[in-house]
Amino acid sequence: MLVVGPNGAGKTNLLESLHVGTQGFSPRTRNDASLIRFGREGARIALHGDHAGSPVELNVVLQVGAAKRASLNGARLQAAEQLRAEVATLVFTPDRLVVVKGGPAARRAYFDRALSRGTPTQAALPAEYAAALAQRNASLRGISLGYSTREALRPWTERVADLGAQLVAARRDVIAALEPLFAARAGELGLSDAALRYEAHPPSVESLEARLDRDLDRGATGLGPHLDDVEILAGERDLRTFGSQGEQRLAVLALLLAEAELVRERRGVPPLLLLDDVLSELDPERRRILAERLPAYGQALITTTSAAALPVEPNQLVEVEAGEAGTVLR
Fold first, then answer.
1. Cα separation, 232 vs 196, whole angstroms
2. Which listed site, 4, 140, 183, 228, has its alpha carbon 20 to 30 Å from 310?
3. What is the number of structural domains in the chain?
4. Quick check: is 180 in a domain?
C-alpha cells in the first residue's frame, strides 16, 4: 500500500494509528494524550483484518485523563501493549536512525524489542531484569543510608545475576539469528560487509559481589546487560562513529528487513511493515531493490509525497489531502 500526499497532510498520522492499533503504543511518543486530536476528549482506532488465515479485530480507545483500553476480537486486554504479542508490526521512521547513530541505550532497546518479537516466550525477560535491577539499586542505596543490610541485598544480587545471564543468552541468540539476514539485506542495498557484534559477559553472583563496594559508592549496579552495547558494523567500521548518514539509514532499513524475515520464520506469520518516508533518500536503484523485495514480507505501507517515488505499481494507493484519506484501488 502506497500512501501519497503533501507534507503535513497526515500521512504519518495514518501510519502511527496503525502502529497504535496493532501494538498498543506509538512509535514516536509515550504520551498517549498527544495522540488525541486537539480539542477532543478521546480517540478510537478500530482495525479489521486477517491474521494467519483467521479474521482479527483490534480496538484501542484513548481518553484524556484515563488509561488507554484495548480489545482483541472483542475480548478486553489487561494492557494495550499485549496486542504486540498477537500481531507483529515493524516501523521505519526517519528518527529510527538513532538505533545506529545514538547511544548504547537505543541499541539495547531495539534489540530487546527484536527479542520480544522474534521470541514471544521471552518477551517479558528485559522488563523482568529491569525490575530486579531497580530493586537491587534501591537496596544498595538503602545500605548506604543505613536502613538496609548486605544480607537483604543478597536475594536481589542472585536475581540480577540469574536474569542477567538469561538476557545475555537471549540477546546472543536473536543477534546471531539476525546477523546473516542483516548482512544479506544490507549487501543488496549496497552496504557491504555489514555485521552485528555483541560482546557481553553475563553477570554472576561472584562478579557482582566482587564490585559491591563500588556499587555502594555509586548507589547503582555497575555490571550487567543494562550496560552492554551492540556494534553495527560495515567491515571493521562502527557505523555509529564512522558511517555516513546514508550508510546509517541503509543499516536501519536492512535491520528492519532482517527482523521481518526472522519474525516470519519464527512466528509463522509475516509482520506488518510501516515505512515512513523511506524512499526520499534512496537512489533509484535502491528504491527498485526495496520495491521488488517488499512483496515477500507480506503487507507493507509506505508513505511518500509522490507516487513516482515508487518504481513499481502499488497494490493499493491511498491519497491523503488535508488530513482526510481517500482510497484509490489500481
1. 5
2. 183
3. 1
4. yes
Q: How far apart are CA 58 and CA 73, in angstroms?
A: 6
Tens of pLDDT along 294-321? 998 889 999 999 999 999 999 999 999 8
Residue 220 is assigned to a structural domain of this protein: yes
Q: Cα–Cα distance between 174 and 270 in angstroms, integer?
A: 17
C-alpha cell at 305: 509525497
Whether 41 is in a domain gets the answer no
| Model confidence, pTM | 0.90
Q: By the 8 A CB rule, do 301 and 15 touch?
A: yes
What range does the domain containing 203 cover? 99-268
Reported in sequence order, the residue ranges of 27-127 that DSSP labels E, i.e. its strands, are 42-51, 54-63, 66-72, 75-76, 89-92
- Please, what is the angle between helix 150-188 and helix 104-118, to 10°? 80
Per-residue pLDDT of 62-106, as tens digits, reads 999 999 999 999 999 999 989 988 889 999 998 999 999 999 999
**In Å, what is the CA distance from 317 to each residue of 45, 218, 284, 291, 326?**
21, 56, 20, 14, 9
Q: Please state, in angstroms and rounded to a whole number, the distance separating the CA atoms of residues 26 and 28.
A: 5
Q: Are 259 and 113 in contact (CB under 8 A)?
A: no
42 inside domain = no
- Where b means 16+ CB within 10 Å and e means fewer, 291-330 reads beebeebebbbbbbeeeebbeeebeebbbbeeeeeeeeee
Q: What is the CA radius of gyration of the chain?
A: 22
Nearest to 128 by CA among 153, 100, 165: 165
The CATH number linked to 250 is 1.20.1050.90
- Quick check: 210 and 156 in contact, CB under 8 A? no
Q: In the chain, which ranges are continuous DSSP H helix?
A: 11-23, 98-101, 104-118, 125-145, 150-188, 205-210, 212-218, 239-242, 245-267, 284-293
* Beta partners for residue 324, in sequence order: 321
Return d(Cα 96, Cα 274) in angstroms, integer: 12
d(CA 105, CA 118): 20
